[in-house]
Amino acid sequence: MAGVQHHILEVWGDFACFARPEMKVERYSYPCPTPSAARGVFEAIYFKPQFYWQVDRIELLSYPNYIPLRRNEMKDKIAVTAVKKWMNGKETPQPILADADDSITGDAKKGRTQRQTMAIRNPRYRLFAHIVPRRGYEAEQAAYDAQFIRRASQGKCFHQPALGCREFVAFFRYLPGLENLPQPVDYNQDLGWMLYDVFDLRKTNGSDAPPFITVFRAQVTHGVLEVPPFESHLVRKPESD
Fold first, then answer.
1. Which phi and psi angles does 142 have, rounded to 5°?
2. Co-location of 83 and 187 in the same domain
3. Short-list 13, 225, 7, CA closest to 124
């Protein structure tokens, strides 16, 4: 694509889990990141509301090696409105008790529960993406690209990237090119309908943005998942159903 600076990251970690949405209770990972998870890695390094990241391609550098894990997960979560009241001093902060049960809280929905996770062990991927400025910020494209390259090359990030679940830490390095790099593994799988994103990327992304679930037909061919642009008709959006 002319005039567009494509950025490449190599990411790896001890574990990864990109949970399939149809597995509602027990988590079962896709063999590779979803476009949403890949976008999260780039945003952890550099993000501004004046643009969004368009993931173009995901390469598998290692075969998906699944491992079953049993994890403790919290049943309860803190509401955003409660946090704002605590910050303003209107209410006293109330902790979430990990080992609380209905005999303590009077609510069986609180406390923690054990859930099975089919995660991936020792994952390694190559992620390709580019910055798409929002309307009125097209002139800042070069500055955004330069800032990302500087931060990624120096290992800087706003928060540590993750491979799906936040506790599965991702390490990364910026790749200026593809010379003398290993080829993707020879892995093929039709993933069916894959989660594309949970936000409308055409609008300003933020914590108060409503959910906007999009999906696409994903096919891994020789270790490569080609990701269509968000604007493409290949990405199924709520209004097109």
1. -60, -40
2. no
3. 13
Which DSSP letter does residue 102 get? H
Q: Which of 42-51, 77-86, 145-154 has the lowest mean pLDDT?
A: 77-86
Distance (Å, rounded) from C-alpha 47 to C-alpha 30?
25
Asked if 52 and 205 touch (Cβ cutoff 8 Å), the reply is yes
Q: Which residue matches tokens 């409308």? A: 200
Same domain for 87 and 64? Answer: no
Q: Quickly count: other Cβ atoms within 10 Å of residue 55's Cβ.
A: 26
Pull the structure tokens for residue 188.
């093929």
Regarding whether 189 and 95 lie in a shared domain, the answer is no
Q: Answer whether 117's CB lies under 8 Å from 17's CB.
A: yes
Q: What is the pTM of this model?
A: 0.85
What's the domain count of the chain? 2
User: How many residues can be counted in the chain?
Assistant: 241
Residue with tokens 């990141």: 33
Instruction: Give pLDDT tens digits for 16-51.
Output: 999 998 877 788 999 999 999 999 999 999 999 999
In a domain, 1, yes or no: no
SS3 47: coil
Same-domain pairing of 51 and 81: no
Report the DSSP pairing between strands 112-121 and 27-28: parallel
